[in-house]
Amino acid sequence: MTTKQTMPGRLGAAIIATFAGLLAVFMLAPAANAAAPDPGPIASQLQSGDHFYYDSSVGAPQGAVDAMRAAAGETSNVYLAVLPAGSLKNSSEASTFLKTLNDQIGGDNVVVVVNGGKQLLYRPSVSGWKRELDQAYRKASNEPNMTAGAATFVRLADDVANGRPISDSGSSGSGSSGGSSVGVLVGILVLALAGGTGLFLYSRKKKKDRLAREAAELAAVKQTVDEDVTKLGEEITELDMDVKMLTDGGDHQEDWTRALDAYERAKTELTAAKQPDDLRNVTTALEEGRYALACVRARVNKEPLPERRPPCFFNPQHGPSARDVRWAPPGGAVRDVPACAADAEAVERGFEPQSRQVMVNGQSRPYYEAGPAYQPYAYGYYGGFGDVMTGMLVGTMLGSMMGGWGMGGYGMGYGAGYEEGVSDAGGDMGGGDFGGGGWGDFGGGDFGGGDFGGGDW
Question: Any signal peptide, and if so, which residues (predicted)?
């Protein structure tokens, strides 16, 4: 009889305990679906005078906060916001948030966001600052922690925004040098408190892993570009006899010479490439060579010269596009993209175009879905055609990297990030490895950024 009375009581207690546990889990777990922070109040505080916003829930050491505030306060065109980790959960949120901050602040500016202790995102309002901001990011990423990295980057970004050369130290004056020293000292103190030697070794491993990953990415993209160079050489060889048989006029010889020169330049640039960004010079030469070759082919076949159009979006090896075609990436919006005649017809008939396939993590996928290291590859082919990239790449992985050209930050959800900065504002973007934040390696919409590897602060 006692057992019958006790069992229901125990069952009830177990149910209550279970609900209490679940309630505690839900209360303590991060708000995975929480909305991104409202950029309006943040923009207002950034404009209040010190160009700095700090969310107190971040929990960074006061010395770190002071160092970043001091660095931002010394700038004239750079704004720094420090948010809790995971505030911007994906590239779409980050792209929208940074663009809104840019627009609300107005003028020529660079918005920099620290998304937790490891992720640094940025977006400029001027497209022409792209290359210099990439250099600034590389310098800043050598700092031992996010405090020093963010402080260095905002100073260098301000140099870029004001037309000053980027200094080796990352400072633009004696005051900046002092602020940088404070950031480094804070970083050293935190490292010592956190475990010193162990944390240092961890940081070194992270950097070693990053360098190894970048080397692997460069090798993969160089292989892709080498195939494009080889393809152009084969097409030149195929036309050689036809060109020799042409006797009327000399215009074909000029085009032929331009094609040969571009081919040789592409080979030279490919040999000299040391990082993914160098490969844009190769694909720029390939685009020029393919157009010149298309002109030669037209003269051989007694056809009108082709219009100077961007290469076929689906496969740049197809040469200059013939016309635009309405196309949408999987799950994306329909937009106009330049396509060769064959691919345009395939799309219009409901078939898959012959896209340029590359290998990523052992899988074949279109180059525009291959991740951040292919940003320079695409830029070399299409960057010379004005705003063609703005709508062309929206909704693709490169589209989320390249900001104003439809890129927003390097690569999304693919496991090897090119840790560089990206810029946009109607123009060029960079991106990076957001390793600690669960986004995969990418550089999200209209911005650049990366993982600083070592201790958070």
Answer: 1-34
Q: Which two structure tokens, joined as six digits, stand for 362?
A: 């052992």
Q: How many residues does the chain have?
A: 457
Phi, psi of 145 (to 5 degrees): -160, 175
Beta strand extents in 172-266 (DSSP E only): none
- Domain ranges in the chain are 39-194, 201-450
pLDDT interval class at 426 (50, 70, 90): very low
pTM for this entry: 0.47
Arch. (CATH architecture) of 39-194: Roll (3.10)
Q: Looking at the predicted structure, is the pLDDT value of residue 19 above 70?
A: no
pLDDT for 437 beyond 50: no
Residue 134 phi/psi, 5° resolution? -60, -45
Q: Are strands 323-327 and 335-339 parallel, antiparallel or unpaired?
A: antiparallel
The shares of helix, strand and coil residues in the chain, as percent rounded to the nearest 5, are 55, 10, 35
Neighbours of 76 (CB within 10 A): 10
CB-based contacts of 269, cutoff 8 Å, min separation 6: 278, 279, 281, 282, 285
| Dist. CA 109–CA 450, nearest whole Å | 20
Other Cβ atoms within 10 Å of 315 Cβ, number:
21
The 10 Å Cβ neighbour count of residue 283 is 26
- What DSSP designation does 37 have? P
